[in-house]
Structure formats: C-alpha cells, structure tokens
Description:
By secondary structure, the protein is mostly beta strands. Helix content is 0%, strand content 48%. The protein has one domain. It contains no helices and ten strands. The strands form four sheets. Strands 1-2-3-6 form a four-stranded antiparallel sheet, with no helix packed on it. Strands 4-5 form a two-stranded antiparallel ribbon. The chain has a two-stranded antiparallel sheet with strand order 7-8. The N and C termini lie far apart (37 Å). The model has no long low-confidence stretch (mean pLDDT 89).
Amino acid sequence: xxxxxxxxxxxxxxxxxxxxxxxxxxxxxxxxxxxxxxxxxxxxxxxxxxxxxxxxxxxxxxxxxxxxx
Length: 69
C-alpha cells in the first residue's frame, strides 16, 4: 500500500512554511523584499534540519525578517 505525503500549514507561519505527515518541512513560494532592489521570488523547497550538540534536530523559521526559535 502506498502512503501519500500530505503537507499542512504551520499555524503561526501560514503562507510561509508547511510540515508533512512524514516530518518533512518545506518553505512555500513567496516574494520577499530585498533592500532597495525590490522583490525577489523564493521557490518552494524542502528544508534540511540542523543537529544540535545534544542530538536533537531543529530548524529556525523566519517570518517577516524575524528569526523565531
């Protein structure tokens, strides 16, 4: 039986990030402001997690220029 990967919005980051039933994290396609040059398009992609010294996986998420831990 084949299992389908389903992505759902992360409540605090709706329109920015989604998480799947397999635990994969992806950033959604969107436009960001780049200093005085205007807007830049970010593509939708699967993000890789980091590993801390204690062996836990984590990923810092960014929303509107603010990094949230």
